[in-house]
Design brief:
Length: 152
């Protein structure tokens, strides 16, 4: 596959994702299919934003995303690496008076709904928090979570 070095497993995973989005099995992702994907992911995007996304990805200027274009973008996103320490430092900003390595669920909820460019809705935050292991004091051990999630 072109100039991107992927393992066979990574290429297979990208192909499976691509095939899920390419609903009409045309071999490319249309603006409508991209809009459906964003809607499914609860990402509110205007038609103008979708056009900009397609424009950024669409290297052959046919108005659609072919598999190789999809892989180029996905591999760029997947390879954006943060160290475990950088992720922990991001959590630490919201730690407040919680013990080191922990964050109060309320502080996490506030951070996810108030700060950053990709704010979550209350419903999205509730769904996320329901998946976390929170102790009896309403604390989430982010240090342990990051260590587990980023283990090689």
């Amino acid at each position: 596959m072109s100039t991107i070095n992927l393992t066979k497993e990574e290429e297979k995973e990208f192909q499976e994702i691509f095939n899920l989005v390419d609903k009409d099995k045309s071999g490319s992702i249309t603006k409508q299919e991209l809009a459906q994907l964003l809607d499914t992911l609860a990402i509110n995007a205007s038609q103008q934003e979708i056009d900009l996304m397609i424009g950024e990805i669409d290297k052959n200027n046919d108005g659609e995303i072919q598999f190789e274009e999809f892989v180029a973008v996905m591999s760029r996103k997947v390879q954006a690496q943060y160290t475990a320490e950088e992720v922990k430092n991001a959590f630490k900003v919201f730690e407040g008076n919680a013990p080191g390595g922990y964050i109060k669920v309320e502080a996490l909820e506030r951070a996810l709904t108030v700060y950053g460019s990709d704010r979550l809705t209350q419903e999205q935050v509730a769904e996320l928090v329901n998946q976390l292991e929170v102790d009896e004091n309403g604390l989430f051990n982010y240090a342990e979570y990051v260590n587990i999630m980023m283990a090689e």
